[in-house]
Write a structure and sequence with these properties.
- The protein is an alpha/beta fold.
- Helices cover 55% and strands 16% of the residues.
- Strands 2-1-4-5-6-7 form a 6-stranded antiparallel beta sheet, covered by helices on one side.
- The chain is elongated and about 130 Å long.
Length: 568
């Protein structure tokens, strides 16, 4: 739900904070008071254009902030979008959308405090809010969206079929693309074979091993410092073994052990010490043997310098072409071998692919046929429900239908069906597309009828209707109010209205007024208490500000009657 809306310096609004509630929220007020500005402000949060002209005269920046709490139905989808955008969710699960625009034309959009492009607002808001008005029922005017309405109504069964269909469709496109590639320009294919053959031969002949570069660099470092290493090894050997002088560390240990051994006849106190000295002696003996083998090794490692440098140059050249490491180069080799094999065996591969494509096509045709049948069945039931909802809205003379055309010659993302809602507003007239028949007010009420039929499965938690009640009154007004009340059982509904019946049936009433502090107009917004609600309904019934006792009693009676209708 939309819990809080903060609007600052937008048109004639200086600063307002509106707290909405669950269920049906009605927004009422005199014409020109600023009701549409509130709806426009919400539209800015959905990514609609925010012009500089919207900034209040005499101020530098306009801003809008909305605090939403998404429903359970679309929480997973919204979480996936947040992860993709790199946005951390709020601890309480809320979603904070904000938008600002300054006089220089620079705008800023944020989600949960993170600066994002306007496109991100559009992506996130589609899971939060749905706005409809006399001239804003575009989704109904676009036949391409009608299949989504129908599938939403059909529910999980068709969703499962669509998932399977789309998996097969992905396979179909991949196989078709590979066949097209194989059947492409022979010269281009021959050039590809030549290039891949060269790449494979170049890498194979190098006989690379993972980690080889690091090993060669280590050896190169030894070679570069060979004289220093050899000098240090010989010095260490001389100090341990003693050489011709016989005064190395090992000889000294031998003398020390012998000296202590001679006093063993007098005391046992030094027996452990003698053992440790001998252990050290034998350890140094091993060290001396190792150092001797290195100190007097006649192998000149510098002879390998040219070979190592040549090998490293080869590895560097290969890295420049095929990857940043031996592993990446070898992975490139595997891919090149695979591609080369495909091209060299293209004739046989093409035949295999054509057989596979035929099998996939048959599966797609069967799945598309099943989807078509499910849609036909759902369309019949949805049509009955919408006709019933239209009758509830005093539009029983309208004839509504859902036209489905099945064409298996083309596989599209939504199957092989085109779905279009068609209608005739008067008996005897031909059924035609909505865009050619319905007026703005009729479109909005048709949308209300459709939404009421989809209320239990529609995932969007907030629905806004902007003055769709224009030009209706009496029994039709009561029907529209009841339909809003039905819809608000599963959604938060925010409705800008002039009808007392809708205000009377609302759970929360918001009144918009225009005042003139100083020399400028300013919109004020007030969430009404019960007494304020009665006064506002009286104004809507009478069209004036002052309500007598009779009108007040009539307002109370209307509230009671409308609430009773909801409870029935």
């Amino acid at each position: 739900m939309l819990e809080l809306l903060i609007v600052k310096n937008v048109a004639i609004i200086r600063s307002v904070e509106i707290r909405f509630g669950e269920g049906l929220n009605s927004i009422t007020g005199e014409t020109g008071a600023g009701k549409s500005i509130i709806i426009d402000s919400i539209c800015y949060l959905t990514g609609e254009r925010m012009p500089k002209e919207a900034i209040r005269t005499g101020t530098d920046e306009a801003s809008v902030t909305g605090v939403f709490f998404p429903g359970e139905r679309n929480r997973e989808e919204l979480a996936a979008v947040f992860e993709e955008l790199g946005i951390e969710p709020e601890e309480d699960g809320g979603v904070i959308l904000s938008r600002s625009m300054n006089v220089s034309g620079k705008g800023l959009s944020r989600i949960n405090g993170v600066t994002v492009p306007v496109s991100a607002l559009r992506r996130v808001s589609q899971y939060l809010i749905d706005i409809h008005g006399q001239h804003e029922s575009q989704s109904l005017l676009r036949p391409g969206t009608h299949v989504s309405f129908l599938d939403l109504f059909a529910g999980r069964e068709i969703t499962g079929l669509m998932n399977e269909y789309r998996e097969r469709l992905s396979d179909y496109k991949a196989v078709s693309a590979e066949i097209e590639e194989i059947n492409g320009d022979p010269k281009k294919r021959a050039a590809s074979i030549d290039l891949l053959s060269f790449q494979v031969n170049e890498i194979e002949s190098a006989r690379l091993k993972p980690g080889e570069e690091n090993d060669l660099i280590a050896k190169q470092k030894i070679i570069d410092n060979y004289d220093k290493i050899n000098e240090a090894v010989q010095a260490a050997y001389q100090n341990i073994d003693g050489g011709s002088s016989g005064r190395g560390a090992r000889s000294l240990l031998d003398v020390a052990a012998e000296s202590l051994s001679r006093i063993s006849r007098y005391t046992d106190d030094y027996a452990d010490t003698v053992a440790k000295i001998k252990e050290a002696y034998y350890t140094l003996e091993d060290v001396a043997d190792f150092l001797r083998s290195r100190a007097f090794d006649e192998t000149d490692y510098r002879r390998d310098a040219a070979r190592i440098e040549e090998r490293l140059d080869l590895i560097y050249r290969l890295k420049g072409k095929y990857g940043d490491s031996e592993e990446e180069i070898l992975a490139f080799l595997d891919n090149a071998r695979s591609e080369l094999s495909k091209l060299e065996n293209s004739a046989g591969r093409a035949e295999q692919l054509r057989k596979r494509l035929k099998d996939i096509r048959e599966q797609l045709e069967n799945q598309a046929e099943m989807i078509y049948r499910k849609r036909q069945a759902a369309a019949g039931l949805l049509k009955q429900n919408i006709m019933g909802a239209l009758a509830d809205l005093d539009m029983a003379k309208m004839c509504f239908d859902i036209a489905i055309n099945h064409d298996a010659s083309e596989f599209k993302a939504n199957g092989c069906d085109t779905v279009e809602f068609i209608i005739s507003t008067n008996p005897g007239e031909e059924l035609k597309p909505l865009s050619k028949i319905a007026s703005g007010g009729e479109l909005a009420r048709i949308m209300l009828a459709i939404k009421s039929c989809l209320a239990e499965v529609d995932k969007i938690p907030v629905m806004i209707f902007d003055e769709i009640d224009t030009g209706i009154s009496g029994a039709q007004a009561t029907s529209v109010a009841e339909k809003f009340a039905e819809l608000s059982a599963n959604h938060q509904v925010i409705c800008v209205t002039h009808l007392a019946q809708i205000a009377a049936i609302s759970s929360h009433n918001i009144c918009v007024t225009k005042e003139y502090p100083g020399n400028s107009a300013e919109t004020r917004v007030q969430v009404l208490d019960e007494e304020g609600k009665v006064r506002e309904i009286s104004r809507l019934l009478d069209g004036g500000e002052d309500a007598g006792e009779a009108l007040r009693a009539h307002s109370l009676d209307l509230i009671a009657r409308m609430q009773k209708r909801v409870q029935q």
